[in-house]
Design brief:
7-stranded mixed β-sheet; binds 4'-deoxy-4'-aminopyridoxal-5'-phosphate
Length: about 400
Amino acid sequence: MTLTMSQRSAHYTTSPIRELLKLTEQPGMISLAGGLPAPESFPVQALRAACVDVLDTQAQGALQYGPSEGIAPLREWVAAHLRAQGIEAQTDEVLITSGSQQGLDLVGRVLIDPGSIVLVERPTYLGALQAFAPYGPRFADLDEDAGGALPTLDDPAHRDARMVYLQPNFRNPTGQTMTAARRSQWAQALRGRPIALVEDNPYGELWFDAPPPAPVAAQLPGQSLVLGTFSKVLSPGLRLGYVHGPQEVIAKMALARQAADLQTSSLTQRLVLKVLEGGLLDAQLPHIRALYRAQRDAMLAALSRHMPGSVHWETPQGGMFIWLSLPPGADATALLPLALQRKVAYVPGTAFYAAGAVPRNTLRLSYATATPAQIETAIARLGEVFSATHPPEPRHAPSVLAA
Ligand code: PMP
């Protein structure tokens, strides 16, 4: 008996990154593929103490159902955190989510109709494309220059857009940061148009030399949805994130999420609130920044040593990723099996393009998880793979991606 699945279900396709993550569990593999936070950054002791404290003092609330919007003091903490970045945020404009990935799905649910035009950076976060796609948008790519994506809202292909999805800080996958001037241009271009700004900011706290410029949303009150997460600064396993936006949109998202999961875990919210109130982020962030900075430096040094002159990259000022461009004609997807044979994993860049021509010569490297010694070994091996003659174009996707 073959069961009939919805047309929407056809949009839920395999993610190359998730498939790669399975392979990277092989013994001896050095993965530069997933954007996994460094395990040594997890605040195990603080979370253990908070867990005991929460169960000792507020077990009734922590183990009970709670509000779909999230518990009030955590929503207030988030609102204050956003106000410190210049965003006019009130408690009832914040929805606590099970990771910002859920926030992206909720954005899709309440903002996108079939055929709605969604403007995206080029390349952009694969998980956002996956979250939006089931709701039937037409993706339109934004051109960019050194300042970031260009606010070309007078372009006939862009002017009727429903929303624009931007990651101004240390973008996944390229590591780029949008300049302050470009942020202002975006706010100015969007102001007064019925286009929502969806500003995704998981990496903003992971800066190396100086904090990034203020969010675009700070200049665009009432028209912006801002997504944040505790995944990259505390732990992704907690599954705790948030969305801030106009109250009526947030209220609708809270109703939409009731259909999916009712609420984010009461225990996790109290646990995280406890460590936040104890000042854990202020204590922890300088260490995470120093750790990732050292790993970024190790990767940049290894790239300079081992990559052929035809390979290019930029220096990220924060976040987890370096974006590599191989010479035109090279195919990062076709080269991946050779890298995997040498026990190194990366993500081919093709996964991150929503529309338009897809360059095949780019790839994403993460410096967040591997140690400097592993990074050196992995980049030396990749240097050998990328220096060898490029194999012919594959007629079909390699099995690793088709798996
Ligand atoms: N947005 C971006 C740009 C990301 O890179 C990620 C995680 N890779 C997410 C959202 C989702 O993160 P989480 O659900 O863990 O908060």
